[in-house]
Specification:
alpha+beta, Beta-lactamase, Alpha-Beta Plaits, 2 domains, 5-stranded antiparallel β-sheet, 12 helices, 14 strands
Length: 443
């Protein structure tokens, strides 16, 4: 080929890239789908390639749950941290080479604390090596129809070959809930206890959005602040994915707006095409959301580029009179009401559970059912011992008698057991209002 045709070809390619640049420079990508039907309720740049960051771990857990169901893995099985697993950067449990934990602890560390070392422990157990496991992840992605996705590691740490999209991550999340409903509670737990440390879930959507009951956060400088959230209202489940927020607070606030919009649209029957029909029109690489001068922590380690990216806040319009707005108004009215005096009462929800995680899940269900009432009193998990066996129960304490009756009416309306009684001091209570530790990297 002569020089002139080569120049013309290069100019044509450059023109195509310039025409496609708005997609490559997408400020954010998002999608909301109906989890049962797969119909799209809302989407913005949902097929744009993106760095998934720790949302990668949803695939890591999907393969782990698949191994549990096939019998290749057991929850109580002991696994060990290799030197490679122990060397992973934050966020992590801080496992040392050779240190052991159970598969269940590793899953909980991944779903609640986004622990990179625990993710690698699971990957090496199932794949023999993290690189082999990454190949398994990509193969699973293809079988689920995640055609924008490829994986190079189990954690989501920066790698130019580790890419996905909002559409693909919504497909994965829907598959996880559909295929492993009995294990979804791992993504609903509000905290994780390991070696005496109580560590809260990094996913604050569980507390900030009334109907949310799971999934996963993610962060690197390259990806920005990512979030998958699932919420269920009146038996109807939505899955939302938001990629590229510029702060942790922005992702939770805008995800709330996305879910509000999704529920409002679905109530009106405003559905789009099936998620599998969304077409990928761009082969451009993922954008870098946060430059090194704007990235918290070790910018190089977390995948920032050296340039300066333009910052413009994400603004997703939520419908007027959304459920969140109404709950805020009710909350303000409740706070303005004069306090009634009288004895403190305790509300106990559901039965006793042999595992604390089950009581955590029950507590989260109660929070969702109670709405603004959940702000009253103090939520806690109580540990009891009877005939040598340990049990856990969810409770609210410090309530007025009238409030305790309101609690039980609301919970029973949601088909949850409830009993109210004058308060009794319990020495073995776990307070759910402990301050969040700040010494761990966001995810």
């Amino acid at each position: 080929m002569s020089t002139l045709p080569k120049i013309r070809l290069a100019l044509a390619s450059l023109t195509c890239l310039m025409l496609q640049s708005p997609s490559a420079a997408a400020r954010y990508a998002a999608i909301v789908i109906d989890a049962d039907t797969g119909r799209v309720v809302h989407e913005t740049e949902s097929t744009q390639r993106w760095y998934p960051a720790s949302l990668t771990k949803v695939m890591t857990i999907y393969l782990t749950l698949s191994a549990l169901e096939s019998g290749r893995l057991r929850l109580n099985e002991t696994v060990f941290a290799s030197r490679h697993a122990a060397s992973q950067p934050q966020s992590k449990l801080g496992l040392r080479t050779g240190q052991s934990l159970t598969v269940e602890q590793a899953i909980m560390a991944v779903t609640t604390r986004s622990a990179n070392d625990a993710a690698v422990v699971l990957a090496e157990r199932l794949g023999g090596s993290e690189s082999n496991f990454a190949t398994m992840m990509t193969q699973q992605a293809r079988s689920l129809g995640m055609y924008n996705s490829s994986f190079e590691n189990a954690s989501g740490l920066p790698n130019d070959g580790q890419i996905s999209s909002a559409r693909d991550l919504a497909l994965l999340s829907a598959a996880l809930i559909r295929d492993f409903p009995q294990h979804y509670h791992f993504f609903s737990a509000t905290e994780f206890t390991y070696k005496g440390r109580v560590m809260p879930n990094t996913n604050r959507i569980l507390k900030s959005y009334p109907d949310a009951d799971g999934l996963k956060t993610g962060f690197t400088c390259g990806s920005g602040y990512n979030l998958i959230a699932s919420a269920k209202r009146n038996g109807h489940r939505l899955i939302g994915v938001l990629l590229g927020a510029h702060s942790s607070g922005e992702r939770f606030e805008q995800m709330g707006n996305l879910l509000d919009m999704g529920f409002a649209n679905s109530e009106r029957g405003l559905f789009g095409e099936h998620i599998s029909q969304l077409k990928d029109y761009s082969a451009l690489p993922p954008p870098y959301q946060l430059s090194s001068n704007r990235c918290a922590g070790s910018a190089e380690q977390m995948g920032a580029d050296s340039g300066s990216s333009r910052y413009e806040p994400i603004h997703i319009d939520a419908p007027h009179n959304s459920r969140r707005e109404l709950l805020k108004q009710q909350n303000q009215l409740a706070a303005a009401k004069p306090q009634r005096h009288g004895n403190s009462w305790t509300v106990s929800m559901g039965g006793s559970y042999p595992r604390k995680i089950d009581a955590d899940v029950n507590l989260q269900r109660a929070r969702n059912a109670l709405g603004p009432l959940a702000k009253s009193g103090q939520a806690r998990i109580v540990k009891t011992k009877t005939k040598g066996s340990t049990a856990w129960r969810a409770q609210w304490t410090g309530l007025q008698q009238d409030d305790s009756q309101d609690f039980c009416r609301r919970l029973r309306a949601r088909h949850m057991d409830c009993s109210a009684s004058p308060q009794v001091n319990t020495a073995l209570a776990t307070n759910h209002s402990k301050p969040v530790r700040r010494n761990q990297r966001k995810s």
